[in-house]
Design a protein that fits this description.
Helix content: over 70%
Order of helices and strands: HHHHH
Largest sheet: none
Oligomer: single chain
Number of strands: 0
Structural class: mainly alpha
Shape: elongated
Number of helices: 5
Strand content: under 5%
Length: 137
């Protein structure tokens, strides 16, 4: 049985994501320095980094590459981004390691904000249900 996600972003997951981004950056240093014509807007790119993290959690739960790739294409398609466009933009943005670290920090902040929002909603609903059960007694 796979480990169930706790809903928290562990430091090991963050380090893993950071390492993937840095390795990609190092591998792409020999490429052209010009921005691709279809460069994804930086704010949207950060949203996609958040989505990539969520996809990595899915990949950990369902260790099946075809499910991961299908989910990746579905998420990118939702933003009208092709996997190739994302890869080109990712290579471009990853070249500036310091700026990429800032983007990753922002992605983590957004993940934590979303986690807090979902957790808050869960606990409010749980309390509402508890109160309605107490009132009905």
């Amino acid at each position: 049985m796979k480990n169930q996600p706790s809903g928290r972003i562990s430091s090991s997951q963050t380090v893993s994501l950071l390492m993937v981004m840095i390795l990609t950056s190092l591998l792409s240093t020999g490429c052209s320095r010009s921005a691709p014509a279809d460069l994804i807007d930086e704010d949207l790119y950060i949203d996609l980094l958040v989505e990539a993290h969520l996809l990595s959690v899915i990949h950990q739960i369902y260790d099946e590459p075809e499910i991961h790739e299908k989910a990746r294409r579905l998420v990118l398609g939702n933003y009208n981004i092709s996997p190739e466009q994302f890869d080109r933009s990712h290579r471009y943005y990853s070249r500036d390691v310091e700026a990429q670290q800032e983007r990753l920090k922002e992605a983590r902040r957004r993940l934590e904000e979303e986690h807090s929002s979902v957790a808050g909603h869960y606990f409010r609903e749980k309390e509402r249900l508890r109160e309605s059960l107490v009132e009905s007694e």
